[in-house]
TrEMBL record:
It comes from Mesobacillus persicus. This is ABC-2 type transport system ATP-binding protein. Keywords: ATP-binding, Nucleotide-binding, Transport. Belongs to the ABC transporter superfamily. The lineage of its organism: Bacteria, Bacillati, Bacillota, Bacilli, Bacillales. SMART domains: AAA. PROSITE patterns: ABC_TRANSPORTER_2. One of its GO terms (molecular function) is ATP hydrolysis activity. The keyword ATP-binding applies. It holds the Pfam family ABC_tran.
Amino acid sequence: MSGEIVLSVSQLGKSFKDKKIISDISFEVKKGEIMAILGPNGAGKSTTIRNIMGIMYPDEGSVTFAHYKSGSIPRHKIGYLPEERGLYKNVSIMDILMYFAELKDYPVAKAKKRALAYLSKFGLEGKEKTSIEELSKGMGQKVQFIASIIHEPELLILDEPFSGLDPVSQEVFKQEIKELANNGTAILLSSHQMNLVEELCDRLYMIHQGSKVVSGTLSEVKKEYANFKCTIHGDNEPALLEKIPNVLRIEQKGKQTILYLSAEMDIPKWVKQWPEGIQVEELSIDRTTLHEIFIQIATGTGTKEGVQDA
Ligand SMILES: Nc1ncnc2c1ncn2[C@@H]1O[C@H](COP(=O)(O)OP(=O)(O)OP(=O)(O)O)[C@@H](O)[C@H]1O
């Protein structure tokens, strides 16, 4: 990764009918980097992406692609998979892919070669003459994905690329996104599949109600929001559990208690600091997953400081 900044979003803000939808959204995506924009339904991810794509214009802030400012961005260097899927129905796969290549001023002969290679990679070999309307939803999504990368974009923006795909197809998309990044494409994606984000993305930017909550590499985010969790089985009173030090949050369900811990703990030392009388039939220590962090943030139970009952 060269570290060259491809996309820079600065203090983006957008309102609809006096209602602020996003505010002060700022991040960068570098060459060869995969960046995830995350957040619950309605958080403002697609609005952010649409403002970057010039589909709508921000009320505040700016978008810079390479050295180009908002008004002069060379759109043919960008690939985009919108959240709304849909391709012309009565056209063959190859015709639609060539249409997208031409729109982006990409040489047709080269595009044809790329199209055939991608169709075969995505299990659609020999289907180039098939009409779009004959395709299943997932197949259509594969064609739309190919359309977004046919012209070798420098920046690729994928709005929920994995939604509606079976696990095998998700894996194929995941590998392809990785390969594109390895070859230098800067990638910004939104997704609700936290396991895939965790496996794929170099950095993430999480928004809630239109504003940033947390951003950084996965390990930076994990450092900020409970690095470890300790699960105990045993009969324990909440008042006693609250005496355990360095606990950010406690969740109790019957005999099972989950303690979300501060980052970078010395676990053996910590266990020795427990108060007398804690019952332990079973104990396990794990890393908090991005899925859990997301739920904590989205439901407002992700306090960084202080102990809170679930
Ligand atoms: N054209 C519009 N006019 C009015 N409100 C809009 C418009 N587009 C989006 N919104 C509102 O903006 C908010 C953010 O929507 P957005 O689609 O950006 O969320 P999202 O994070 O992409 O959500 P999801 O995960 O559900 O796709 C929502 O409250 C939505 O109702």
